[in-house]
Amino acid sequence: MHPEQGSPFDVVIIGAGFAGLYGVHQAAKAGLNVLGLEAGEDVGGTWFWNRYPGARCDVESVDYSYSFDEELQQSWTWTERFAAQPEILDYINHVADRFDLKRHYRFGQRVVGASFDDAAAIWTVRTERGDEFRSQFVIFATGCLSAPIKPNIPGIESFAGEELFTAQWPEQGVSFEGKRVGVIGTGSSGIQVSPIIAREAEALTVFQRSANFSVPVPNRPWTEQEQADIRATYRQRREKSYYAGAATPHASLETKALDLAPAEREAAMEDRWNGGGVLFNKVFPDQNSDITANQVVREFAVAKIRAKVDDQAVADDLIPYDHPIGTKRICTDSGYYEMFNRPNVSLVNLRREAIEEVTPTGIRTAEQFIELDTLVYATGFDAMTGALLRIDLHGADDARLGDLWADGPVTYLGFGIPGFPNMFSINSVGTPSVMANMVLHSEQQLDWVLALVQHCRDKGIRTAAAREEAAVKWTDHLLEVAEGTLFVKANSWYMGANVEGKKRVFMPYIGGFGNYRRYCDEERDNGYPNFELSV
Ligand code: NA7
């Protein structure tokens, strides 16, 4: 339990996903004594854990990749337009090897606590193994969808068959052949994994509590010509993304939904539908803020579902009625709705017949008993705050983060938490991370935080902590921006609504990546006026 001997690290970065790895690379390049800690046995973060069959990113591969190194982006070849988990994990490993990043990491080290010593101005970070590491700065790149939730269903521990979590899928893979499989959860993960299970299993039962909208992924290999074109204009593509709403080169149309003639409106929606979920989520500039515009888009999606599903009673169950389209993340699928036309697939609508219990051999609902050999949980995450709050975090004066955030999280630009000097959280609450291309977002986040670390070191500043009033103002601002949209009308994980007892408050900044980035630039360029910098 003794801290490592010798001088503290300059910076400890927790997490070896896209964000953490980039941070470690930049910190090491800047000559900082950096340590990376990672719970998993290797790099990859989200893409290390979520290796369920069918896992695929909804952002185009050429955008969902690092931009910081021109040689890297010129030399790597993405085979598919929308990369699947194995290729993304290969890419992350390639980057880690190319820049020799693994040597900075201790893997299999889940961080369970961190506390700030006021007198020494040093953080001590504790891991599950009982190791302690001291550092001047600590950066939590722990992910915003990385704290999986196992549902609280009576009898769940008694199930005697095979239990699988999409968020902790076994590395060696799984066979469903001849099995009766149940999938609980119909978010992105459940919607991606189910069609693959359906092809193999004897029977698949999907347990749906809330229906979601899903758009087919228009995946295909990149052509050689496309690859050449992208390489030739990669810089410009990135420049276009750096201040774009979702950190990709794509934007919504400029014309509001109802300002277009019906035929043009349909054509626009068809075009965006064919471009995938991310594009369909922003056909019109007003679709996420004006309910009439939203309903136009909704009706289009509903017709698509109806056209794919043979049995219209099943289609009825698959159509969401509880939220405006897009206010819960639109999913990306490969044959999800069509899967319900197979004879071996059935849908159980838990709004009509709730699960009463899990037994050793299956699931009993209010209406029936379904025998199962395998149960797959695709039940989501304690989003945005879960990863941080599962760590016992104590800041200045021993204040506990869990207590400070009891009424909802308060941050300044996401990075800074008042009372937690020299600690930064990445892609956190208060940022547009979950609404944007996470890779470019991660680069922006780490560049910003490491610039502040460098500023402190250059100026002999011992501690930097976000000012309370700035954090309150930023949090009020992000809530105000959210109130102007339809997002606050859904019981989504953006609102914390999927976690029992969690304060319901909108967590991401929804004003767009570009606007967010401008706030961050201004703060940095003005010498960090909203941070208390103490020498
Ligand atoms: P999501 O989108 O949070 O989906 C979780 C699903 O699990 C959702 O359909 C939930 O229904 C369902 N769920 C959770 N608990 C239960 C219980 N107790 N009983 C029945 N159903 C339950 O997580 P994903 O992993 O699919 O996707 C997360 C994000 O990752 C995604 O948005 C992308 O950004 C990538 P609910 O809606 O709560 O009624």
From TrEMBL:
Cofactor: FAD
One Pfam family this sequence matches: Pyr_redox_3
SUPFAM superfamilies: FAD/NAD(P)-binding domain (SSF51905)
InterPro entries: FAD-binding_Monooxygenases, FAD/NAD-bd_sf
Keywords: FAD, Flavoprotein, Monooxygenase, NADP, Oxidoreductase
PANTHER family: L-ORNITHINE N(5)-MONOOXYGENASE-RELATED
Recorded family membership: Belongs to the FAD-binding monooxygenase family.
Protein's UniProt name: NAD(P)/FAD-dependent oxidoreductase
Naturally occurring in which organism (per UniProt): Nocardia tengchongensis
